[in-house]
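Can't paste images in this forum, so I'm doing it all in text. The chain is below; anyone willing to post the predicted structure tokens underneath?
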Amino acid sequence: MEQNNIIGLDLAKRAFQLHGARCDGSVAFRKKLSREKVLTFLAEQPRCIVAMEACGSAHHWGRAISGIGHEVRLIPPVYVKPFVKRQKNDAADAEAIAEAASRPTMRFLAVKTEEQQARAMLFRTRDLLVRQRTQLINALRGHLAEHGIVAPQGPAKLTVLEQAVEDTGQSLPILVIELARIYLDQVDRLSEKIAELEKATAHEAKRGAMTRRLQTMPGVGPITAIAVETFAPPMEVFQRGRDFAAWLGLVPRQHSTGGKQILGKTSKMGQRDIRRLLIIGAMAVVRAACRKGAPEGTWLHRMLARKPRMLVAIALANKMARSIWAMLTKNQDYRVPVAAAA
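Text version of the structure:
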């Protein structure tokens, strides 16, 4: 088989498609292999670049292929799609992956370690259980509202529903009471599991130097610190803090032309989990500042005096992202900004 420079690998459950490309871009081979034969085939190839889409199981295959001596490049699927020619099939996808990987300006993702993926599973599991608990609570609120029992939203107000179900004066049908108890039991079980996962998350956040450093910033707790360490690439990838904020989708969307800059709403592109957690943390900081008062002369004090709270929270989340980049690239803890002189 002829020398190849890049191998595009289209991942699947069973049938894997490979596309070998030479240095000049011509086709070296097209091959379809079963799952068991992929590593054996790649081990027989000279050292080259193996490119894959950053999808399910990509990090597992990236670690395995790196172990046999090849250079692995993971590409976001959205950057591969423009290179697919006409019809979509496995062979066209593999060719598009190889073509995208050959571009000098293409952006690649780092291969995650097993520890990072384990923490990602911890984060996702807690997030899933929280969503399930919210679904159960909202379903119970909706059912009881049909019987005249109304309660505010949120797990903290669940006691209102519990008291209404057990109140004999409500004269609810027996079937409604029994079904409501099933909902409440499930919510209690999920709350216990969520509390256990939060303890595990706090324990993991205390172990790493990076996560401990991140928690020195107001608005960043164990869950946010774990999310940044797990889902964000190495900060050295970004040239400046604004690039990291843009990667998270916390900068205005551009629609500029003819030398005229037109900025719109936040782009909301990038890693949604970190962005959501930073905004939640920023809103907590803003609420505390509104309740206790922000220090005179600080950026937060000036912004709250002339801007709506939600806008200030988004702007603060942007600043938090930039500060995270600075903290991790300089290996420094968070430093409280000095108030400007009057």
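The longest strand covers residues 27-34. Residues 114-207 form one domain.
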